[in-house]
Amino acid sequence: MKKTLPIITFGAVIAMIGLATSQEINHAQRYRACMAEAKNAPQKGFEMALSWRGLGGGDAAEHCGAAALIGLKQFTEAANRLEALAEKTKQTAEVKSGLLAHAAQAWILANNNSRAEAVLTAAIILTPWNVDLLIDRAQSRAGQRNYNGAIEDLNKAIENGSRPADAFVFRAAAYRLLDKLELALADIERALAFRPDHPDGLLERGILRRMRNNDDGARQDWLNIIRLAPKSTAADVARRQLESMDVKQVPK
User: Fold this and answer.
1) pLDDT per residue over 35-78, tens digit each?
2) Hey, which CATH number is domain 1-130, 1.25.40.10, 3.20.20.70, 3.40.50.720, 1.10.340.30?
3) From the centroid of its chain, how far is CA 169?
4) C-alpha torsion sign, points 184, 186, 191, 196
5) Beta carbons of 138 and 115 less than 8 angstroms apart
């Protein structure tokens, strides 16, 4: 199952800024600026977080610093910091859960899917109403080849209407990996009915079409990804699939 895990920010984390008091600094504004740097210029974001922490940025500054470490590909260190922050913060269950979810993203990027699953399970216990976490846990389970476990989480997410396009795409991938192609095809059509331009959905349908010897259909899906989202991970995979297809079609 393909992982799509952008660095996320949690609006609720801004509540942590109340722990630090400094009338000269607008901490909410600093948090937004720091997280933007963490995503776009992570080294600068990390340095900003260190400086801000010394000025009373508190937990929010620590969150930004950990987010910057993800951008710097220091995934394990980032995950450990985010877990520690979730444990020590005095904020709400929602904030703690968000920090744990962010830690899980880092664990997945570090290829430690078992730890990601455990952290996401803790997050789900804190905020059982947040069914988006089920989609994230499904990805961590798929990363351990526990496709039936992934489908179980995705079933619950779909029942609750959570990110239907994503959930159907991921469930289609899990069904494909279990060789249940008819179920996979049905899910991918449902996903694309919700969002026809979903890059991962088009990628998955192209793979399924190729498996059913519909090379023209597969090519169309993969070319559409490159046209719609040329810089996406899905587009990179689509290019490789097209190259593989073309090599196999070269006459000997």
Assistant:
1) 999 999 999 999 999 999 888 889 999 999 999 999 999 999 99
2) 1.25.40.10
3) 13
4) positive
5) no
